[in-house]
C-alpha cells in the first residue's frame, strides 16, 4: 500500500507528486544550507556525474564539489533572490565524474530552509543569441495572430521549432477540467490528435495545482530509472524535500505508464496561465527515444507560453467587452419598448422577440400575480412552475440554472419536447421568469474511452487505478444537454429583472396619480 493510503478511485489526486524523494537521471540535485552552502541532501547519481559519492558529499561545502567560481555565483544569485534564472557555468576539469570540464546548466531555487542546486549538462551546443532573437521574432509572429485558434496554431509551430519535439499540441481545459487539443504541429507520419478530448482525471487536481505555479516540466526519457535522494528525509526537518519547483523532479509512475501506453518516449509540458488560473498546456511528445532540449530552449518556450497566455487573455477580454455592449444594447431596447407601450407592461414584454435573443433562449415564461405567460418553445405551465419554483428554486431572488433539466427530477425524464436547459430568476414565490434552451446534441471525440480507467492488480497484489491502454478515437454522443448558462447570462437576467421592477414601480405610481 502506498504511503498515501488505500487505493480507490480518488487515489490519482492523492499521490503526493511534489515529494517523490527522487529525481530523473539527466542531472544532479544538491540541497544545501543557504548560509554555509554545506550539502545536506544529494542525489544518488552524484558520483557518476561529479565524482563524489552522495555519502561523502554530505557536510561538504558546495565550493569543494563544484569549484569556488560556481559556488560564488550560486551565493550571489541566492543573495539577490535571483532564483529560477538559468545559470551557465563550466565545472572544474579536476572533477572525477562525467561532468568534469563540461559546460552545464545550473538552476537554483528555495525549498523550505534549503537552497536547491540542480546541474544538467547542456543538451546541445549553446547559442544564447539564437534563443533570444528567435524568441523575440516568435513573439512578433504570435502578436500578428487575431483569433485564439490562430494564436494557438502559431504557438505550437514556434514551440516545435524551438524544442524539436515530434508533436506539439495546445491543450485547452474546459470548465470541468476536461481538455481538448485545439492546435497541433506534428511530424507528418503521426496520426492527428487535433480536436480530441481527454477527461479531467488524465491530469489530476494536485498536478494542475502544481502546474499553476511551476510552468514547465520535462520528462526527458519515459523509461528512466528514478534516482533517489540521499537521505530521502531532510535531516534538518525529518520531512522529504519539497520538489515542486525542481526541474529534475521524478514524475508520477502512473503518468509514466500513461505515456508509455501512448507510445511516447519523452514529454514536456508548459503551463498556459491566465489571471492565476490554468487555462491550458502546451503538451509536447517525442516518439523516437529520449529528448532533452537545453534549459534555454525550455525557458524560451515557457516565455512564449506566457506571451501567448497574455494575448489569449487580451482577446478574451475584448470579446467579453463586445458581448457586454451588445447585451446592454439589447436590454435597453427591450426596456425602452416596454416603457413606451400603452398596454400592460408584462403583456408587451412577453411579445418582444428580443427577450429570447437576449439569453440565446428558445422559450421564456413569466408568472406574475397568478398569471402565467410565455413566448417561444416552453413546456406546459405546470412544468414551467415546477422548474422555476421548485427545481431551480430562485425564491430568494437568486438565479438558478441547469443545462440538463431532465436530470433534476424523475418526473421530467423521458418527457417529450422538454427543453434541455433552463434559467430561472424570481422575487416572490409566485413571481418568476424562466428561460429555456433546447437540446444541443453534441458529439465529443475522446482520445480513448474516458470511462475505461482500469483497476489493475499490481505486483504486491494490491489493486490500483491504471491509465487506459487504448487512445483510439472514441466518439460519444451527448444528449439532453443545452448550451450551458454562464455568469454573463446570470447578470443579464438580474439586470432585466431590475429594469422590469423599476418600470412596474413607475407604472403603479402613474396609476395612483391617474386615480387621484
Ligand atoms: C500528468 N497528464 C499529466 C501531464 C499531461 C497529462 C500533459 C503533465 C505531465 C507531462 O508534461 O507529461 C495528460 N498528456 C496528457 C493528455 C494528453 C497528453 C491528456 O499528451 C493529450 C494528448 N493520469 C491518468 C490516470 C492518473 C493520471 C488514471 O490517466 C491517475 C491515476 C495521473 N497525470 C497523472 C499524474 C500526473 C499527470 C499524477 C502528474 C505527473 C507529474 O507531474 O508528476
UniProtKB/TrEMBL annotation:
Q: Phytochrome chromophore attachment site domain: from which residue to which, for each copy?
A: 147-306
Q: Determine if Hydrolase is one of this entry's keywords.
A: yes
This protein's record includes keyword Iron: no
Q: Which UniProt keywords apply?
A: Chromophore, Hydrolase, Photoreceptor protein, Receptor, Sensory transduction
- Name the UniProt record assigns to this protein: Phytochrome chromophore attachment site domain-containing protein
The species this protein was found in: Nocardioides koreensis
Its taxonomic path starts at: Bacteria, Bacillati, Actinomycetota, Actinomycetes, Propionibacteriales
Amino acid at each position: 500500500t502506498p504511503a498515501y493510503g488505500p487505493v480507490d478511485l480518488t487515489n490519482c489526486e492523492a499521490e503526493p507528486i511534489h515529494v517523490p524523494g527522487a529525481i530523473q537521471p539527466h542531472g544532479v540535485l544538491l540541497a544545501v544550507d543557504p548560509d554555509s552552502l554545506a550539502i545536506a541532501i544529494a542525489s544518488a547519481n552524484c558520483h557518476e556525474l561529479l565524482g563524489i559519492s552522495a555519502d561523502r558529499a554530505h557536510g561538504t561545502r558546495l565550493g569543494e564539489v563544484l569549484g569556488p567560481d560556481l559556488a560564488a555565483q550560486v551565493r550571489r544569485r541566492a543573495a539577490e533572490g535571483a532564483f529560477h534564472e538559468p545559470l551557465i557555468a563550466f565545472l572544474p576539469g579536476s572533477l572525477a565524474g562525467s561532468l568534469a570540464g563540461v559546460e552545464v546548466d545550473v538552476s537554483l531555487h528555495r525549498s523550505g530552509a534549503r537552497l536547491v542546486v540542480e546541474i544538467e549538462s547542456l543538451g546541445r551546443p549553446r547559442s544564447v543569441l539564437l534563443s533570444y532573437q528567435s524568441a523575440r521574432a516568435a513573439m512578433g509572429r504570435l502578436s500578428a495572430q487575431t483569433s485564439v485558434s490562430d494564436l494557438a496554431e502559431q504557438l505550437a509551430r514556434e514551440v516545435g521549432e524551438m524544442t524539436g519535439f515530434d508533436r506539439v499540441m495546445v491543450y485547452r481545459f474546459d470548465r470541468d477540467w476536461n481538455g481538448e487539443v485545439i492546435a497541433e504541429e506534428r511530424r507528418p507520419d503521426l496520426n492527428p490528435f487535433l480536436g480530441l478530448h481527454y477527461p479531467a482525471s488524465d491530469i489530476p487536481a494536485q498536478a494542475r495545482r502544481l502546474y499553476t505555479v511551476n510552468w514547465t516540466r520535462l520528462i526527458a526519457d519515459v523509461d528512466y530509472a528514478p534516482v533517489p535522494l540521499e537521505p530521502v528525509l531532510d535531516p534538518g526537518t525529518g520531512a522529504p524535500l519539497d520538489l515542486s519547483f525542481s526541474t529534475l523532479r521524478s514524475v508520477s509512475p502512473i503518468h509514466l505508464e500513461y505515456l508509455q501506453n501512448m507510445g511516447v518516449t519523452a514529454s514536456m509540458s508548459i503551463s498556459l496561465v491566465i489571471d492565476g488560473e490554468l487555462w491550458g498546456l502546451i503538451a509536447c511528445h517525442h516518439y523516437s527515444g529520449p529528448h532533452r532540449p537545453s534549459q534555454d530552449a525550455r525557458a524560451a518556450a515557457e516565455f512564449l507560453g506566457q506571451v501567448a497566455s497574455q494575448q489569449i487573455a487580451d482577446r478574451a477580454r475584448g470579446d467579453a467587452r463586445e458581448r457586454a455592449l451588445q447585451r446592454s444594447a439589447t436590454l435597453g431596447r427591450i426596456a425602452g419598448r416596454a416603457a413606451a407601450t400603452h398596454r400592460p407592461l408584462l403583456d408587451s414584454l412577453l411579445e418582444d422577440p428580443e427577450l429570447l435573443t437576449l439569453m440565446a433562449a428558445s422559450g421564456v415564461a413569466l408568472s406574475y400575480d397568478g398569471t402565467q405567460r410565455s413566448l417561444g418553445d416552453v413546456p406546459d405551465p405546470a412544468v414551467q412552475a415546477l422548474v422555476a419554483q421548485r427545481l431551480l428554486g430562485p425564491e430568494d431572488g437568486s438565479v438558478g440554472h441547469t443545462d440538463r433539466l431532465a436530470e433534476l427530477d424523475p418526473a421530467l425524464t423521458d418527457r417529450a419536447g422538454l427543453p434541455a436547459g433552463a434559467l430561472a430568476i424570481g422575487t416572490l414565490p409566485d413571481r418568476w421568469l424562466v428561460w429555456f434552451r433546447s437540446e444541443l446534441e453534441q458529439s465529443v471525440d475522446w482520445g480513448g474511452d474516458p470511462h475505461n480507467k482500469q483497476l489493475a492488480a499490481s505486483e504486491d497484489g494490491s489493486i490500483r487505478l491504471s491509465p487506459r491502454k487504448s487512445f483510439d478515437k472514441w466518439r460519444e454522443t451527448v444528449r439532453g444537454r443545452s448550451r450551458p448558462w454562464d455568469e454573463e447570462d446570470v447578470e443579464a437576467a438580474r439586470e432585466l429583472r431590475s429594469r422590469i421592477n423599476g418600470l412596474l414601480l413607475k407604472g403603479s405610481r402613474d396609476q395612483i396619480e391617474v386615480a387621484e
